[in-house]
């Protein structure tokens, strides 16, 4: 497969360049109470078949005949039992803006656009945690939302805004792509000062590309897919592709220590950044040069990376770029069970020959992926599919309720990709893995991008769902996966969930010393008085189980406010104290008052 | 000391009783021999046996199990370590490990199990009237086996215990356990191998510093547990209790089976306490002799064949109660932080952390108490308690009357009494006496202990010995009820000894007794205040004691109860008192012999051992190497 299929997501662009003084509100093309674009969603049509609307995602847009069966069987749900969302935002549910008049006056003088429309404010009052989306769908009253939104256009605008905020004691919350899943964007209800959401979306330019050193200097508000597209035009890419890259921003990646699908080739965000410019209440932090590595005390970048908007606003980033790879190829391997799959990934990591991406989905996710297979048009394809299935289950003796699939993505020049591919398939074979084709591999990656849309579909039918992640040493991967799933099942039962929950996991990243594990968890909430509360208790228990099994608090989602309570346990109270002293020095008046992390 | 706060008293007791409440609601019993008496034993032994295993795993062949153990990281680590220390090549150590494993491992075979099913059916029908099992417990166990690795923890009173356990599990089509047994059985060549083929694995009695042995042993047990191949069975008490009192638990194996949970290797481990109560123990008089210093007969096949004569006697019934499975996960909640295991490689053996040690110790005690709680008591147990307080004998009518009184007391203290329904008391008493005619006899309307076999002339020493045998045999029945009365009895003694009726002073005496007796009885570490409150609550509830203000005083009707309790513990108090100055058993023999003391129980090696341990623990004596 060549370059044409580089991107699973379609030619979707959300460049919302500011062309006039009017701010283009994102909510015009994006859902206000769900994931992604307004015109893209799953629904069950009149024949009860699932369809994906819109034209943005080239691969879908067709009928998915098995989804309904899978959905109803997995969750005990029915397409006849709907739980529709409130159709539109009820302005009366939004608390009135409490403005700091002096700040507004001074801001007006700078000419930086701002708004205190209810819709603008609500849109920036949340991320994509289950409880946040659920509340929007239910039309619940908001406790606290930003009082106004500002749209700086460049680094200097941010400097001005932060100065004014300090002068008038206003609380600033930076807002990038809004894809947070850690309650990081939630306004602290106890905040009495005026809260200003600082939306970086207008700072979305690539300022320069340095081909000699292969770096690009980019404004931090740029959205992932725009960055890739613009760099592609010059023949480059960053290779940083977090699952949220359609909507998440560069500044957000820095602030949360993001990780991309292809980190095996390109590195995680901390490996990619060369220079970061941050505006804090104390002034601007930046380094004096672009040396590729320095021994100048602890790296100040590491105070910024993962600071989750508590210290300041990331305005500009210099990051590594690479020529677009010549050749790209998906692949997949079927293993008889999860244990074999993990053993194979471990070996691949040991030999340091991981492809750009290698992921292992458990059996539940394999079946889920199957439910997303589009209708096959020809009898021949049907026949081939049947034959493949027969070969794997009957001839090779794989139990369809045990088998798992690893999806692969290779990149590089053609010859090397083919060589690399062979090496990985050879290792897989020693663990009983069978090559299962490019399509299966590619479908695995589609799941990543449409899963959030599927959650919205679930919520239309009494199903709530969420994902969470961790990183864990190799020897504990299996134990952790098993125990966390079991804990979730148990907790659901104990908390009165009437239906068997779906718990599924996949190993999404491999490292020398461990792996990143990603969990999906969903259940049918019919019969529960407070499904969100139940959900939260279960997730809480699952996180405790993760920590007890040697998993980390987070691999790449971050801490936000959702996981703050475990910070001391995770990094020791002395560690928390160190972070606190940095915060106290950089932002003594807590201007960046989102109260994440600490 | 003012650790006892009167205001929190009621709450605490309420909580305690609530916690223990599920145990107090006990299941009914079914007699599994009944069907055996009515249908073919051969058919039964050959019937289809297809138990459900943990999460549907397929059973593991003994050889495959050995390979998993020998190839484990855990064992490899220790092999390399030992090889470095000793300078031997790893291959040689590996070979040693393999030999150890060979000596240890079980070779469970269904054909042997079927043989036992047949032979035991025959034997049980001859020996026992009933073998009663709580079927609800069996159902709970069946459920537990499918969900989690299960550890069966039966009480240990007889060699019969583990055969009986396997027999019952076979009867109910449950997965057969693998059983940790002492190496002494291996002395009986043929029988030892038979036991091995029915699921026993053998461990040396002591292997103190032998790292390799320990590694093979613990990895063997853990491998079975982690994979859920079979329930694991062992005796927390470590050995058969010769006194019928529960022994303080040994922690080695419990540590091993709990560790996989802490290390996250299994989601949970279920501990199932099993209480096996014998109306008459096969080893009855053997035990008394052993306690008096006659060496335990060596296990031998010929000895076993000689023991056939026991087949001609009636041993009453057996009750086997499968308790509520105890989830280690729930027990450890909030007590052990599993993440402390995160920073150390899991395959490297490591001494358990303090937090873990005290958790395991605590768990062991709780399990033994659960065993005690569900021990079925026969009327004879009450009668023995009364007879021991009246060694000169009792009028039958008085005995009957007092037994009825004691029955009421025992029931109000939640004893698990198996008193025949609708039978007149006189009948119950007489049939108990009939079953235990070797211990007590009625002559001229008086009931007294039977002393020795009056064959020919006996020396005074022999007479004393025979007397002591009969007292100790009888005491082994009284001991069965001690756990019911222990706490209130200690309070009664404390009230008797304390200088005043002030609650504080009584508590001080109580806590001294509690501490002193904690080798002899099952007193959960740290439960001293709770036990005191429980004792107060029970004595107040039964009207023997009232607690005005800060005092504890006897009521008008409290005399019989309190004096019974004082009498109950008297042998122990006297024994400890005696041993304190001497520590030499010859001296105590002398005391009894010269009539200085009318307490034969001090002659029991068990009491001497416990008292010595207590004195050492309380720093009253010191060990000096001579």
Task: Give an overview in words.
The complex is a heterodimer of chains A (598) and B (626). Chain A has 18 helices and 21 strands. Chain A is α+β, with helices and mostly antiparallel strands and 598 residues long. In chain A, the strands form five sheets. In chain A, strands 18-15-17-16-20-21-19 form a seven-stranded antiparallel sheet, sandwiched between helices. Chain A has a five-stranded antiparallel sheet with strand order 8-9-13-11-12. Chain A is globular and about 75 Å long. By secondary structure, chain B is of the alpha/beta class. In chain B, 54% of the residues lie in helices and 8% in strands. In chain B, the strands form three sheets. In chain B, strands 1, 2, 3, 4, 5, 6, 7, 8 and 9 form a nine-stranded mixed sheet that branches. Chain B is globular, with a radius of gyration of 25 Å. At the A-B interface, helix 16 of A face loops of B.
Radius of gyration of chain A: 24 Å
Structural class of chain B: alpha/beta
How does the helix and strand content of chain A classify structurally? alpha+beta
Q: Give, in spatial order, the strands making up the sheet with the most strands of chain A.
A: 18-15-17-16-20-21-19
What is the oligomer described by this structure? heterodimer
Spatial gap, N to C terminus of chain B: 40 Å
- Work out the number of β strands of chain A: 21
- Uncertain stretches of 5 or more adjacent residues of chain A: 1-23
How far apart, in Å, are the first and last alpha carbons of chain A? 47 Å
Integer average pLDDT of chain B? 86
Q: Main sheet of chain A, how many strands, which sense, barrel?
A: 7 strands, antiparallel
> Roughly how many Å is the radius of gyration of chain B?
25 Å
In DSSP terms, counting alpha (H) and pi (I) runs of 4 or more, how many helices of chain A? 18
What shape does the CA trace of chain B take? globular
Mean pLDDT of chain A: 91
> Greatest chain-chain interface?
A-B, 13 and 12 residues
Strand content of chain A: 15-25%
| DSSP E strands of chain B, number | 14
Secondary structure: helix percent of chain A: 25-40%
Contiguous runs where pLDDT drops below 50 for at least 5 residues of chain B: 1-23
Q: Count up the helices of chain B.
A: 25
